[in-house]
Amino acid sequence: MADIATFCSTIHGSGIKIRNDYLLNKNTTTRAHPVLSIPYSRQRLLCYSYRGYSNKKTHTRQLKSKPKHPCLGNLLKCRAVHDDAAAEKQSKEDISRATLLWRAIKLPIYSVALVPLTVGSAAAYLQTGLYSATRYLTLLASSVLIITWLNLSNDVYDFDTGADKNKEESVVNIVGSRTGTLIVACLFLVLGFVGLTWVSVEAGSMHSILLLASAVICGYIYQCPPFRLSYQGLGEPLCFSAFGPFATTAFYLLQSGASELSIDGTVISASLLVGFTTSLILFCSHFHQIKEDKAVGKISPLVRLGTEAGSKVVKMAMVTLYSLLFVLGLGQTLPFSSVILCALTLPMGNLVVSYVEKNHKDKTKIFMAKYYCVRLHALFGAALAAGMVAARMFARKQLPEAIIL
Predict the structure, then answer these.
(1) Per-residue confidence (pLDDT) for residue 295, from 0 to 100
(2) 369-396 and 265-284 are packed helices; what angle lies between their axes, rounded to 10 degrees?
(3) Gap between the Cα atoms of 11 and 6, Å rounded
(4) What span, in angstroms and rounded, lies between the C-alpha atoms of 68 and 51?
(5) Number of H-type helices and E-type strands within the chain
(6) In this structure, what are the phi and psi dihedrals at residue 72, rounded to the nearest 5 degrees?
(7) Residue 150: is it exposed, middle or buried by C-beta count within 10 angstroms (0-12/13-18/19+)?
(8) Burial level of 381, CB count in 10 A (0-12/13-18/19+)?
(9) Phi-psi bin for 166: left (phi > 0), alpha (psi -120 to 50), beta?
(10) Model confidence pLDDT, tens digit, residues 101-127
(11) Ranges of the chain with pLDDT below 50
């Protein structure tokens, strides 16, 4: 063992010093060093692993014996290899349970329930001056229940296909019960739809319940068998329709008090913008799971395009979003105040584009791209709604005609 200790530090016999940092900073480095004869059984003890905390790589030292040199003895080849698979596994182990629970809850994603309702209500206030706080809160609670059903059932059916096999933040993997998760999801769906139906009946708007039912159906065929249209790459169009024209328009009708289907260009324009930013969240959520999706036959747009082309799509989508905003403003379809306030979110849009362009190949970092899109979605929706409220208040220069509590 004395020979082994001598070799691991400094080989005094030859005056050669092996520097660990040199070997560890190379992907594959090979050096041959003459040492005294060491039995093969003892040479194996010289192999060890090292994990560099600075770059979170796992390195393995391997020694191979060469034929005995007449003067120098055995030549041992030292090979340092970094192990990316082991590093990725170690990285997953470093994720705390609290972080996994936070990711499973997906609290920021619930902005997709808040934004269509807020924008639809603001559009109703712009047109009629009416606003019902009770109705707003009831619709918000019901929408949150529907989104919870979407998230839970999506985890269940992705678990069935194997798409979430290695997804540690999957609710099914955390809870350990596929059936229990599905039962809770269905309960949330029933409660949420009862709330939406109750408000629609109270408002006397059957068109609203039809629009909301269409939005829920889009969510069902997106992920649930036998349809699973998300596996065919149709998730983004379904998401756009559900949260944009269907949900936003329905909420507008419920807050406006109109029993008949009477919508104008402002409502349609606002719903298109809401659907656009919502779909962008879904698109960016696929960047970090291309390998898993491809393995189970889930052909998302990013599986077809790849991450580099996908980053260009994100850039084009952002240009389209703000171009559409200004076109609608010039056409006076949207209030000028909404255009100005939404334009102030442009730095957030630039941040999304730059982040995706820089990190689209990094599976760990690109995970955050969807959350940057959530921030953009929430800010853009809030600006759009605030602009419509401001347009009404400055136009009339008086309090709202009616606030129903």
Answers:
(1) 85
(2) 160
(3) 6
(4) 32
(5) 19, 8
(6) -95, -10
(7) buried
(8) buried
(9) alpha
(10) 666 666 778 889 999 999 999 999 998
(11) 1-69, 71-93, 398-405
Give the pLDDT confidence score for residue 97 in this predicted structure.
63
Q: What backbone torsions phi and psi does residue 347 show, to the nearest 5 degrees?
A: -60, -35
**Rounded distance between C-alpha atoms, residue 211 and residue 202, angstroms:** 16
Query: What pLDDT is stored for residue 170 in this prediction?
Result: 75
Q: How does pLDDT run across 231-280, given as a tens digit for each residue?
A: 998 999 999 999 999 999 999 999 987 655 567 889 999 999 999 999 99
Q: Where are the domains of the chain?
A: 2-89, 95-398
Which pLDDT value is given to residue 349?
96
pLDDT of residue 91: 45
Task: Tell me the two tokens of residue 68.
Answer: 């005995």
**CB-based contact 138:265 (threshold 8 Å):** no
Query: What is the per-residue burial (b if ≥16 Cβ within 10 Å, else e) of 332-341?
Result: ebbbebbbeb
Q: Which has the closest alpha carbon to 368: 157, 115, 108, 144?
A: 108
How many residues can be counted in the chain?
405
- 79 φ, ψ (degrees, to nearest 5): -125, 125
Q: CA–CA separation, 216 vs 189, rounded Å?
A: 9
Helix ranges, 32-132 (H): 40-43, 84-93, 97-105, 111-128
Q: What is the DSSP letter of 164?
A: T
Position 333 scores a pLDDT of 92
Bridge-based pairing state of the strands 130-132 and 402-404: parallel
Instruction: Tell which CATH architecture fits domain 95-398.
Output: Orthogonal Bundle (1.10)
Instruction: State the Cα angle at 326 between 321 and 329, rounded to 5°.
Output: 125
In sequence order, what are the residues at sequence separation of 6 or more whose Cβ sits closer than 8 angstroms to the Cβ of residue 205? 253, 254, 258, 259
